[in-house]
Amino acid sequence: MRILLTNDDGINAPGLEVLERIARQFSDDVWTVAPETDQSGVGHAMTLSAPMRLRKVGDQKFALTGTPTDCVIMAVREVLDRKPDLILSGVNAGQNIGDHVLYSGTVAGAMEGAFLGIPAMALSQAFDFGGSRTVPWNTVETAASEAISKVLAANLPADVFVNINFPNCAPEEIVETVVVSQGKFEHGLFIDKRRDGRGVSYYWLTFGGPPPDVKPETDVEALRDNKIAVSPLKLDLTEERCMAALKSSFSS
């Protein structure tokens, strides 16, 4: 099996090293094309207005001055002599759940794999942003292979990719693995306005807002309860529930 790795935390991220060790439990034919720098929060962006540089950093390992989406396209169209059999994106430092999957470059890497008809999964490891900021990498490294194996065994449709989030706990504290829906957050992005030494304004995007309304059988609930959250996502964003109402409105 040929496996392609990418991420959004960049070529030097510790989560990418973890992901490579996970991938080598399945195959020796592992390739990596990852962003040269941190691309967190870029979503499914592509680089269309600037050239990109590809740099070889090791055996079957490359860094690209682009986004995770760019990396997958570059790997499949330029670096590899044939399509990979599986794409793994991550392991992200921090959860990618709820509405945040729409911002996530990690999830976008897997999404691009689905666009290309390749089985793909995004892997993220939750940690406490407000505490020591220590990421429990041992949790995902211990539990990921079983989760990946079971996703592969499900033989999902080509337009479906899978988002897997691992809870912020030790491996022995994981309760179970559950298949859940994408949860919901209140919009929690705000503008932090500051001034530099010359009095000129500059801005940071910051996270805040109330705690999420934790609905049952969602990724938000699963991580709260020390469960691994497995969520199938699809490329088709059509809201079928609204089709009849809109057809009626336009036909009247």
Summarize the structure.
This protein is of the alpha/beta class and 252 residues long.
Verbal overview:
The chain has 252 residues and is of the alpha/beta class. Helices cover 26% and strands 26% of the residues. It contains 6 helices and 11 strands. Strand 5, helix 3 and strand 6 form a beta-alpha-beta unit. Helix 1 crosses helix 4 and helix 2 packs parallel to helix 3. The chain is globular, with a radius of gyration of 19 Å. The N and C termini lie far apart (54 Å). The mean pLDDT is 96.
Topology:
Elements: E1 2-6, H1 14-23, E2 29-35, E3 54-58, E4 61-64, H2 68-79, E5 86-93, H3 105-115, E6 120-125, H4 137-153, E7 160-166, E8 177-179, E9 189-195, E10 201-207, H5 219-224, E11 228-234, H6 243-251
Parallel strand pairs: 1-2, 1-5, 2-4, 5-6, 6-7, 8-11
Antiparallel strand pairs: 3-4, 7-11, 9-10
Helix pairs in contact: 1-4, 2-3
List keywords for this structure.
11 strands, 9-stranded mixed β-sheet, alpha/beta, two-stranded antiparallel ribbon, 252 residues, 6 helices
What is the helical fraction, as a range of percent?
25-40%
Order of helices and strands: EHEEEHEHEHEEEEHEH
Strand content: 25-35%
Q: What's the N-to-C terminus distance?
A: 54 Å
- In spatial order, strands of the major sheet run 3-4-2-1-5-6-7-11-8
Tally of individual helices: 6
